[in-house]
Amino acid sequence: MSQRPVLLPTSAHDETFAGFTYHLEHPTVNIGIKPMKGALKRMMAGIQIFVTEASGQGQIAFSRDGAGHIVPLHIEQGQEVHVREHQFLAATQNIDYTFERVKGIANMLMGGTGYFIDKFHGHNGEGILWLHGYGNVFEKTLAAGEQIDVEPGGWLYKDTTVKMDTNIQRLATGMFGSMNFVTNRFTGPGRVGIQSMSVHFETAE
């Protein structure tokens, strides 16, 4: 008579073999799918309709598809922050999410980003927003009226008090005379997050 399959242990504590000690713990974090508001509008914009939602007691890890810098932003109740599209990593449950289309041909063509801006808000209380920036992330706090020009793919986030415009300069000398130099111009007061690498995503109309 053949032996029935035997269920292997699902947990272990201080198991030692070959000079190594290891632990196995039963997962206590539940993973589900959370639908986002405005599903039709989001689908027409070509952005995600669902996000993964984790709940329970335990640990969970996050990663993206490139080397970079994970930035935690502490969102106070009533505070809002604007984020470059495709940079969102995770957020606590109290953080609400909407998005805004940035109009203008320069924002559509230069860098492939800035076409949509993600808007995160602490409507229901304080929470944490985690962003992934490519390369290293630097934060510049602008005084009232102070300006900084950033390559269209180089900004990561900004406060709502910071105004963003598209700045186009024509290169009128030398072999580059027929080319334009395009930047996003940020005017304070408030914070601007800048990433040292640019990854351009194609955005369909």
Describe the structure.
It is a single chain. By secondary structure, the chain is mainly beta. The protein has two helices and 16 strands. Strands 8-9-6-13-16-11 form a six-stranded antiparallel beta sheet, with no helix packed on it. It has a three-stranded antiparallel beta sheet with strand order 5-10-7, with no helix packed on it. Strands 12-15-14 form a three-stranded antiparallel beta sheet, with no helix packed on it. 21% of the residues are buried.
**pLDDT < 50 stretches:** 107-114
The Cα radius of gyration reads: 22 Å
Q: Mean pLDDT, rounded to whole units?
A: 80
Number of DSSP strand runs: 16
Percent of sequence in beta strands? over 45%
Helix content: under 10%
Shape annotation: elongated
Main sheet summary: 6 strands, antiparallel
Order of helices and strands: EEEHEEEEEHEEEEEEEE
Strand order of the largest sheet: 8-9-6-13-16-11
Number of H/I helices: 2
* Structural class label: mainly beta
Q: Calculate the terminal CA-CA distance, rounded to whole Å.
A: 66 Å
